[in-house]
Amino acid sequence: MNRIITIGRQFGSGGREFGRRLAEELGIGYYDKEIITEIAKSTSMSEEYIKSFIEGKGQKLMPITIGHSFAHIDNFQVDNPAYKQIQSIYQAQSEIICSLAEKTDCVIIGRCADFILKDYDPLRVFVYASIDSRVSRCMAKKRENENFNEKEMRKHILNLDKDRGKYYEFYTDQKWGDKENYDLMLNLSYKDIPRVVKRIAPWFTV
Amino acid sequence: MNRIITIGRQFGSGGREFGRRLAEELGIGYYDKEIITEIAKSTSMSEEYIKSFIEGKGQKLMPITIGHSFAHIDNFQVDNPAYKQIQSIYQAQSEIICSLAEKTDCVIIGRCADFILKDYDPLRVFVYASIDSRVSRCMAKKRENENFNEKEMRKHILNLDKDRGKYYEFYTDQKWGDKENYDLMLNLSYKDIPRVVKRIAPWFTV
Fold first, then answer.
1. Whole-angstrom Cα distance, residue B161 to residue A126?
2. How many contacts (CB atoms, under 8 Å) link A and B?
3. What average pLDDT does the structure give for chain A?
4. Residue of chain B whose alpha carbon sits nearest to that of A189
5. pLDDT tens string B5-54
6. Do B199 and A206 touch (CB under 8 A)?
7. What is the pLDDT of residue B136?
8. What are the backbone angles phi and psi of residue A75, rounded to the nearest 5°?
């Protein structure tokens, strides 16, 4: 069985950079946005459209109740075309993630991969950081056209976390970021990520 | 500054064995029950007596409110000789933990060392495991004179965790086992601890 590392991460924690560098260091596959490209290929939807569903629009349609059982979902939602669409995106995403795990050793970022791949015995990592550290990281990395001040950035980060949590909980019936659902939890507050990766990589190679 | 690794752990998770083996593997100091021996030396109390205060009797005197501010504690408690005694045990313990951290690289198990040593920039590890894994580990390791069945063992474990949590929260104003208070969280459910240590030790040596 291939060696699979799944990485869940709080927004702005540096989890994506950590995962990318870890995959480089280990010389194994790395899948993040590539998954969206693959979904687009396997469906008739554009990458932009899929992204908007996964990262925002989709969550708005989800019931507040945690749990993906249809018992929680009223008829309106089940019949809602947008709801059907997020279900088919999730289905395509699950198939693609499983086929990646079949193909090669890899790091997979987000997208409930820890849950989808539970039969593949992945090493389930969750990366987090203090909110101050995340605000400071995001302010340093923000694009020129982003006008958030620190207060707005903090709100933006917490909102994105809320969406991620809701998405994860909806499909997995598990609480996002709860230690019970991961093998390793890493606090990257104010950490030098390349240095952390150099330190931690040997652990994954034995 | 010495390299300090503090290990908080859920009861039965294997955190103590993990810490002992990690210290051996790294060739650095290991302090666990040794701290109680040192407290006994520096006070007029017996090891047994100190242990009973730290691991049970002490918690019973603590107010339910989290926070060590005296505002939460009524006069009865402040004047209570037993209360004074747990305070002086904690004081002695803090001094001993700081002097160990001054002396040598080391692993320190429990005893709020992550909080007491915050100025020493320790690597703060928390070890946990599923309740089923912990029950199974404790049943396999139980002494001949312990008659717990599985159900009783589960209750015993959860009670001990509750005491540990209360003790930690009382002195630190932080929630025990919350990821924000640690650098690394390790899930040892059903894990082969010697193997985990061999895999993870290189990380601590870079």
1. 23
2. 47
3. 85
4. B183
5. 999 999 999 999 999 999 999 999 999 988 888 888 888 788 888 877 77
6. yes
7. 95
8. -55, -35
Tell me, yes or no, if the pTM score tops 0.95: no
Question: Is the Cβ pair B187, A187 closer than 8 Å?
Answer: no
The nearest CA of chain B is from the CA of A124 a distance in Å of: 10
Q: Which residues of A touch B194 (CB under 8 A)?
A: none
Q: Which DSSP symbol is given to A72?
A: G
User: What is d(CA B202, CA A199) in angstroms, rounded to the nearest whole number?
Assistant: 8
Relative orientation angle of helices B15-26 and B193-205, to the nearest 10 degrees:
50
Report residue A77's pLDDT band, with 50, 70 and 90 as the boundaries: low
Q: Is residue A19 within 8 Å of A134, Cβ to Cβ? A: no
B131 touching A (Cβ < 8 Å): no
A173: three-class secondary structure by DSSP: coil
Task: Provide the b/e sequence for A77-105 (b: ≥16 CB within 10 Å).
Answer: eeeeeebebbeebbebbbebbeebbeeeb
HSE of A191, CA atoms in CB hemisphere, 13 A: 26
Q: Is A122 helix (H, G, I), strand (E, B) or coil?
A: coil
Per-residue tokens: A155: 């709100």
User: Per DSSP, which regions of chain A are E strands?
Assistant: 4-9, 29-31, 106-109, 123-128, 184-187
Distance CA A115, CA A103 (A): 18
**Contact status of B177 with chain A (Cβ, < 8 Å):** yes
Q: Out of A180, A184, A198, name the one closest to residue B130 (CB).
A: A180
- Say whether B187 and A183 touch across the interface (CB within 8 A): yes
* pLDDT tens-digit series, residues B122-143: 999 999 999 999 999 999 988 8
The answer to whether B128 and B185 have CB atoms below 8 angstroms apart is yes
What ipTM does the predicted assembly reach?
A: 0.79
> Which chain A residue has its CA at the smallest distance from B177's CA?
A179
What is the DSSP-derived secondary structure letter of residue B27? T
Q: B71-81: per-residue pLDDT in tens?
A: 455 555 667 77
Chain A, nearest residue to B186 by Cα: A184
Nearest CA in chain B to A188: B183
Q: Of B184, B111, B66, B130, which is closest to residue A187 (Cα–Cα)? A: B184
Q: Do B199 and A187 touch (CB under 8 A)?
A: no
Using the beta-carbon criterion (under 8 Å), do A206 and B187 form an inter-chain contact?
no
